[in-house]
Design a protein that fits this description.
The chain is an alpha+beta fold. It has two domains: about 160 residues; about 100 residues, no CATH class. About 45% of the residues lie in helices and about 10% in strands. It is built from nine helices and nine strands. The strands form three sheets. A four-stranded antiparallel beta sheet has the order 4-5-6-7. A hairpin with a 2-residue loop joins strand 1 and strand 2. Helix 1 runs antiparallel to helix 2 and helix 2 packs parallel to helix 6. The longest helix has 23 residues. It is elongated and about 75 Å long. The chain starts with a helix and ends in a 10-residue tail after the last strand.
Amino acid sequence: MLANARDFVESAVEYARQDKERQWKFSVLHMATALELLLKAKLAMTDYRHLSVGSGLVSERQFEEGEFRSVGIEQCLDRLNRYCDFSLSSDQSQAIKALQRLRNRITHYIEPPHQSSALKATTAAGLNLFIEINNSEFLNADPYDAKSMSELTLELYRNEHFVKERLTTLSSQLSSMPRPRTHHTDECSDCLQDATVIIEGDLKCLFCGREITIPLYAELISRDRSVETCPECNRESVALHRTADGQMSHECFCCGYSRGGEMQWSDGKVEIPRLHSDRYDR
């Protein structure tokens, strides 16, 4: 069931990636199915018999061959809460309800005319919800030949609806977790998003999942690949740089410690402060 959920979400992402007007309805349909199967997979982990409508007993053979009537998504969520102590947040519930409403409209009535924006936004919210549930409940489960959540994220990192939805979901984590105070990690090399946090001795992009150790990152950005231990934060994170006016600068990209020339940064138009004022590194 989990493998099927991953197949459907991959298909939904593929339709979304094509970004063709008449393909978005299939992305919505497949995303809704993917989420339903993911939630049912979670319920089946406790007892596959919870998936059966009513109180009728379902044998293992019937379950494996699909010879039973399965609960709908509302009943599935109710049983997840009752038997698994699992529930969705209000925002997550709204996302899944919006996806279900749009799926029903597309399936049973008419394709929403001139509503590609709504289809894109709903698909983006669905994918973000799928990633959140998968990462919290099935992080170590890897169905054979299935794409990772990071791979799916990277396929849509240029989709403005998905990027907005994902960053909104991550905003509380980004504001509460330690983050590099300099601008070196402002743009993830994989997804181009500013979502890097410090987790013990590693850097991790919460948007796409890319990880790298702090010493290795310092080595990669250091002019001569040399790395020093920072006297302030005690991390191996001080790299050597040459400033715009030719001075040599030793800077910790995590806490901002600096000696020598001062690094200068620009947003492409005007000079900006060397350090983020709204971030802490520990």
